[in-house]
Design goal:
- This protein is mainly α.
- It has 10 helices and 3 strands.
- Strand 2 and strand 3 form a beta hairpin.
- The chain is elongated and about 75 Å long.
- The mean pLDDT is 86.
């Protein structure tokens, strides 16, 4: 009897192990196949929603999301985004290695890392991942970002980023944000308004762009200093 019971237990364990490996293979296959397909699709089509939009909706916020091509955005928006969020966006391949080394050095010295997330990394996260700083999400973000760079390209990444990034409770993208905060379309924003809008991105649920801030003035100064580093901001 004991032998028969032990045999059934071993059989159930073996079946559970085989089932686990089947799901693991399916998960790995999905991780390999789904992101490139999604990025290839978003190269030509607007994302219908992002995970963050769904999360915020569940939390009780609405979804004000109005996609517009970059030709219908004030050029100063792309320049301000690069100046504020990722100075080397037009040069790197998804990761700002100098910034990453700086943050690693700071962390090893006991400092508090400020993050070195590029526009490409933020876009890959916005399209397929959840908000937060947990290690699993950061590893997935690092896996997705080179694929996004390869399949989508700089101009389109910048266009997607400006259209899906969060600008306030239930506000996504520069068109919805421009109409909400300034009562005009994104195409008609002045350089000052564009800088003020981009300046709220580190804390979009806590900041408003109605008045000029030190951060907005810093962004405008940086635009003038970056020069050729902004070259991909002027391409569509």
């Amino acid at each position: 009897m004991a032998t028969r019971t032990g045999g059934r237990t071993r059989a159930r364990t073996a079946a559970s192990t085989r089932a686990w490996f089947r799901w693991a293979r399916r998960g790995l296959l999905a991780a390999l196949v789904v992101p490139p397909l999604v990025f290839a699709l978003y190269r030509v089509l607007p994302p219908p929603l992002t995970p963050l939009m769904v999360i915020r909706w569940v939390q009780g916020h609405g979804i004000d999301y109005q996609w517009v091509p970059r030709t219908q955005m004030a050029p100063s928006l792309a320049r301000a985004a690069i100046a504020a969020e990722d100075n080397l966006f037009c040069r790197h391949w998804g990761f700002d290695m100098a910034a990453l080394r700086e943050q690693m050095t700071s962390a090893l010295a006991g400092g508090r890392p400020r993050g070195a997330s590029t526009i490409s990394m933020q876009t890959s996260k916005n399209l397929l991942l959840w908000p937060g700083r947990d290690p699993v999400r950061k590893v997935l973000e690092a896996w997705l970002t080179p694929q996004l760079e390869l399949l989508v390209g700089k101009g389109r990444i910048l266009e997607i980023y400006l259209n899906v990034v969060e600008f306030g409770p239930g506000l996504y993208g520069v068109e919805a944000a421009a109409r909400h905060w300034f009562g005009k379309p994104a195409a008609r924003l002045t350089s000052d308004e564009a800088a003020r809008l981009i300046a709220i991105l580190p804390a979009p649920l806590a900041r408003e762009p109605r008045h000029a801030t030190t951060s907005a003035r810093r962004i405008q100064r940086r635009i003038g200093q970056l020069g050729p580093l902004l070259d991909c901001a002027d391409t569509t």
